[in-house]
Amino acid sequence: MIEIITADITTLEVDAIVNAANNSLLGGGGVDGAIHRAAGPLLLKYCKTLDGCRTGEAKISPGFELPARRVIHTVGPVWQGGDHYEAALLRACYTNSFELALQNDVRSIAFPAISTGVYGFPKTAAAEIAIASMQDFEDRFDRIIACCFHEADAELYRQVLNRRM
Ligand code: ADP
Fold first, then answer.
1. Which of 74, 77, 92, 135 could form a disulfide with 58 if both were Cys (CB 3.0 to 4.6 A apart)?
2. Ligand 1 centroid to 54 CA: how many Å?
3. What is the predicted pLDDT for the residue at 10?
4. Atom of ligand 1 nearest to the CA of 75
5. Would you call 32 a catalytic residue per the annotation?
6. pLDDT value of position 11
């Protein structure tokens, strides 16, 4: 089941939340900053051992002080007009995050809208990629949560999901 909610992802009690990180994995603004603040300093200490992350790939850490048991850090593409493999890279973020989750016995997972903040990916195109990826993995998880920060983003996700059903 795909659940579309409006919430602060740092409050969710799930097996894993996904972080829209940057290549350094050493924290940043937006959802990344919120996750690091809520997880406490041990997350940064752990992330320093991960040696960064390439765009489209994913790495996993404990959740430390978060209610979520783990954090899957993935790095979305920066939107550069659409002809720099942005769509394929965003798709890879979702696929690689799901694959890493499965390898770690994650049954419930929540995603933010990767790349749609500072990285500037157009929201409708990003929502279509997110929902399509979630549908691909739907059968292999108990809960897949699309965690939007603003109700307007959740409404867009619902429209995209309805169109695809
Ligand atoms: P990116 O650099 O990948 O664009 P951002 O953090 O700037 O990442 O934005 C990604 C999405 O995360 C945006 O839709 C933003 O509204 C959302 N977001 C920001 N903070 C939170 C939060 N605490 N919980 C869930 N989503 C959040």
1. 74
2. 19
3. 99
4. 3
5. yes
6. 98
Could you read off the pLDDT of 4-51 as tens digits, one per residue?
999 999 999 999 999 999 999 999 999 999 999 999 999 999 999 999
Q: Exactly one of 8, 15, 32, 139 is catalytic; which is it?
A: 32
- Residue 88: count other Cβ atoms within 10 Å of its Cβ: 11
Atom 7 of ligand 1: nearest residue by CA position: 117
Q: Give φ, ψ of 17 to 5 degrees.
A: -110, 150
Q: Are 72 and 18 in contact (CB under 8 A)?
A: yes
Q: How far is Cα 80 from Cα 82, in angstroms, rounded to an integer?
A: 6
Is residue 141 a contact partner of residue 107, using CB atoms and an 8 Å limit?
A: yes
Nearest CA to ligand 1 atom 6: 30
CA distances from 85 to 10, 59, 76, 103, 113 (A): 30, 21, 11, 26, 18
Q: What does the pLDDT look like over 54-77, one tens digit per residue?
A: 999 999 999 999 999 999 999 999
